[in-house]
Amino acid sequence: MEFFRFRENNFFRLAKFSLSTNFTIQLKLMAYWLVKSEPFKYSWDQFENDKQTFWDGVRNYAARNNLRAMKKGDLLLWYHSNEGLEIVGVAKLVKEAYQDPTTEEEAWVAVDVKPHKKLKKPVSLAQIKADARLQQMALVRLGRLSVQPVTNEEWDVIMELAGEQ
Fold first, then answer.
1. Are residues 134 and 149 in the same domain?
2. What separation in angstroms does the CA of 36 have from each of 22, 106, 155?
3. How are strands ordered across the β-sheet holding 86-99?
4. Which of 30, 60, 77, 146 is most deeply buried (CB count within 10 A of its CB)?
5. Which structural domain, as residue segments, surrounds residue 48?
Protein backbone atom coordinates (compact mmCIF):
# COMPACT_ATOMS: atom_id res chain seq x y z
CA MET A 1 0.00 0.00 0.00
CA GLU A 2 1.39 3.40 -1.01
CA PHE A 3 0.32 6.85 0.18
CA PHE A 4 0.30 10.31 -1.32
CA ARG A 5 -1.30 13.61 -0.37
CA PHE A 6 -3.12 16.04 -2.60
CA ARG A 7 -5.06 19.23 -2.10
CA GLU A 8 -8.81 19.32 -2.78
CA ASN A 9 -10.94 22.39 -2.00
CA ASN A 10 -8.22 23.77 0.31
CA PHE A 11 -8.13 20.54 2.35
CA PHE A 12 -5.38 17.97 2.19
CA ARG A 13 -6.58 14.43 1.66
CA LEU A 14 -4.55 11.31 2.21
CA ALA A 15 -4.85 8.89 -0.66
CA LYS A 16 -4.00 5.24 -0.26
CA PHE A 17 -3.45 3.26 -3.38
CA SER A 18 -2.43 -0.20 -4.34
CA LEU A 19 -1.66 -1.80 -7.64
CA SER A 20 -3.53 -4.98 -8.43
CA THR A 21 -2.04 -7.67 -10.61
CA ASN A 22 -3.59 -6.10 -13.70
CA PHE A 23 -2.02 -2.73 -12.78
CA THR A 24 -5.24 -0.85 -12.10
CA ILE A 25 -4.93 1.81 -9.43
CA GLN A 26 -7.40 1.76 -6.56
CA LEU A 27 -7.64 4.99 -4.58
CA LYS A 28 -9.13 5.57 -1.17
CA LEU A 29 -9.31 9.22 -0.27
CA MET A 30 -9.67 10.32 3.31
CA ALA A 31 -9.64 13.53 5.28
CA TYR A 32 -9.86 14.00 9.03
CA TRP A 33 -12.13 16.28 11.03
CA LEU A 34 -13.11 17.15 14.59
CA VAL A 35 -16.73 17.70 15.65
CA LYS A 36 -17.85 19.03 19.01
CA SER A 37 -20.78 17.75 21.01
CA GLU A 38 -21.91 18.80 24.46
CA PRO A 39 -22.14 15.50 26.35
CA PHE A 40 -25.19 16.56 28.37
CA LYS A 41 -27.03 17.10 25.06
CA TYR A 42 -25.59 14.23 22.98
CA SER A 43 -22.76 12.14 24.39
CA TRP A 44 -20.51 9.58 22.75
CA ASP A 45 -22.31 6.85 24.75
CA GLN A 46 -25.68 7.95 23.36
CA PHE A 47 -24.16 8.08 19.86
CA GLU A 48 -22.94 4.48 20.25
CA ASN A 49 -26.39 3.40 21.44
CA ASP A 50 -28.06 5.12 18.46
CA LYS A 51 -25.53 3.55 16.04
CA GLN A 52 -25.92 6.47 13.60
CA THR A 53 -27.06 10.09 13.67
CA PHE A 54 -27.16 13.21 11.57
CA TRP A 55 -25.03 16.23 12.39
CA ASP A 56 -27.33 19.23 12.08
CA GLY A 57 -27.94 22.67 13.53
CA VAL A 58 -24.60 24.15 12.41
CA ARG A 59 -25.07 27.91 11.91
CA ASN A 60 -21.49 29.06 11.46
CA TYR A 61 -20.32 29.57 7.87
CA ALA A 62 -16.81 28.18 8.42
CA ALA A 63 -18.19 25.06 10.14
CA ARG A 64 -20.80 24.70 7.38
CA ASN A 65 -18.07 24.86 4.73
CA ASN A 66 -16.21 22.11 6.58
CA LEU A 67 -19.37 19.95 6.56
CA ARG A 68 -19.69 20.52 2.81
CA ALA A 69 -16.05 19.48 2.28
CA MET A 70 -16.52 16.13 4.05
CA LYS A 71 -16.56 13.00 1.91
CA LYS A 72 -18.06 9.59 2.63
CA GLY A 73 -15.54 7.54 4.59
CA ASP A 74 -13.79 10.51 6.23
CA LEU A 75 -13.02 10.06 9.92
CA LEU A 76 -14.09 12.52 12.62
CA LEU A 77 -12.73 13.00 16.11
CA TRP A 78 -15.64 13.26 18.59
CA TYR A 79 -14.90 16.00 21.13
CA HIS A 80 -16.92 16.51 24.30
CA SER A 81 -17.18 20.28 24.75
CA ASN A 82 -18.19 22.37 27.79
CA GLU A 83 -17.86 19.41 30.16
CA GLY A 84 -15.23 16.75 29.83
CA LEU A 85 -13.22 18.78 27.29
CA GLU A 86 -11.74 15.71 25.66
CA ILE A 87 -11.69 13.70 22.45
CA VAL A 88 -13.44 10.44 23.26
CA GLY A 89 -14.03 8.62 19.99
CA VAL A 90 -13.81 8.40 16.22
CA ALA A 91 -16.85 8.62 13.95
CA LYS A 92 -17.13 7.87 10.25
CA LEU A 93 -19.00 9.95 7.67
CA VAL A 94 -21.66 7.81 5.99
CA LYS A 95 -23.62 10.46 4.05
CA GLU A 96 -22.24 13.66 2.55
CA ALA A 97 -23.81 17.11 2.99
CA TYR A 98 -27.53 17.53 2.36
CA GLN A 99 -30.14 20.14 3.30
CA ASP A 100 -30.34 20.52 7.09
CA PRO A 101 -33.79 19.20 8.04
CA THR A 102 -34.03 21.61 11.00
CA THR A 103 -34.31 24.69 8.78
CA GLU A 104 -35.79 25.76 5.46
CA GLU A 105 -32.82 28.03 4.75
CA GLU A 106 -30.87 26.47 1.88
CA ALA A 107 -27.53 27.76 3.22
CA TRP A 108 -27.32 25.13 5.97
CA VAL A 109 -26.41 21.46 5.65
CA ALA A 110 -26.25 18.27 7.69
CA VAL A 111 -24.22 15.07 7.35
CA ASP A 112 -24.76 11.52 8.63
CA VAL A 113 -22.19 9.86 10.88
CA LYS A 114 -21.81 6.55 12.67
CA PRO A 115 -19.50 5.48 15.50
CA HIS A 116 -16.23 3.98 14.31
CA LYS A 117 -14.47 3.34 17.64
CA LYS A 118 -14.17 4.61 21.17
CA LEU A 119 -10.64 5.75 22.01
CA LYS A 120 -8.66 3.58 24.42
CA LYS A 121 -7.77 6.73 26.37
CA PRO A 122 -9.62 10.06 25.99
CA VAL A 123 -7.36 12.93 24.95
CA SER A 124 -8.00 16.05 27.02
CA LEU A 125 -7.82 19.64 25.84
CA ALA A 126 -5.07 20.17 28.44
CA GLN A 127 -2.99 17.38 26.85
CA ILE A 128 -3.53 18.87 23.40
CA LYS A 129 -2.52 22.37 24.51
CA ALA A 130 0.54 20.98 26.30
CA ASP A 131 1.82 19.09 23.24
CA ALA A 132 4.06 21.28 21.06
CA ARG A 133 3.14 19.22 17.98
CA LEU A 134 -0.51 20.33 18.30
CA GLN A 135 -0.08 24.07 18.78
CA GLN A 136 -1.42 24.84 15.30
CA MET A 137 -4.43 22.53 15.64
CA ALA A 138 -7.73 24.33 15.01
CA LEU A 139 -8.98 23.16 18.42
CA VAL A 140 -6.22 25.26 20.02
CA ARG A 141 -6.38 28.22 17.62
CA LEU A 142 -10.12 28.35 16.83
CA GLY A 143 -11.60 26.95 20.00
CA ARG A 144 -15.21 27.91 19.29
CA LEU A 145 -15.47 26.38 15.80
CA SER A 146 -17.74 23.31 16.05
CA VAL A 147 -16.54 21.48 12.91
CA GLN A 148 -12.80 21.66 12.20
CA PRO A 149 -10.28 20.13 9.82
CA VAL A 150 -7.53 17.97 11.33
CA THR A 151 -4.24 17.46 9.51
CA ASN A 152 -2.73 14.02 9.01
CA GLU A 153 0.07 14.90 11.43
CA GLU A 154 -2.39 16.10 14.11
CA TRP A 155 -4.45 12.93 13.64
CA ASP A 156 -1.36 10.77 14.19
CA VAL A 157 -0.44 12.65 17.39
CA ILE A 158 -4.00 12.37 18.76
CA MET A 159 -4.01 8.62 18.00
CA GLU A 160 -0.65 8.29 19.76
CA LEU A 161 -1.92 10.17 22.85
CA ALA A 162 -5.05 7.98 22.85
CA GLY A 163 -2.96 4.79 22.87
CA GLU A 164 -4.24 3.78 19.44
CA GLN A 165 -0.82 3.47 17.71
1. yes
2. 44, 23, 16
3. 53-55, 109-124, 86-99, 75-80, 32-37, 147-150
4. 77
5. 32-161
CATH assignment at residue 39: 3.10.590.10
Tell me, yes or no, whether 22 and 55 share the same domain. Answer: no
How does pLDDT run along the chain (165 residues), one tens digit per residue?
A: 444 555 555 555 555 555 555 555 555 568 999 999 999 999 999 999 999 999 999 999 999 999 999 999 999 999 999 989 999 999 999 999 999 999 999 999 999 999 999 999 999 999 999 999 999 999 999 989 999 999 999 999 999 999 997
Whole-angstrom distance, CA of residue 17 vs CA of residue 87:
29
Q: Measure the CA–CA gap between 142 and 140, rounded to whole angstroms.
A: 6
How far from 55 is each of 58, 119, 131, CA to CA, in Å?
A: 8, 20, 29
User: Which of 60, 52, 46 lies closest to 76, judged by CA?
Assistant: 52
CB atoms within 10 A of CB 157: 21
Based on the domain organization, do 24 and 37 belong to the same domain? no
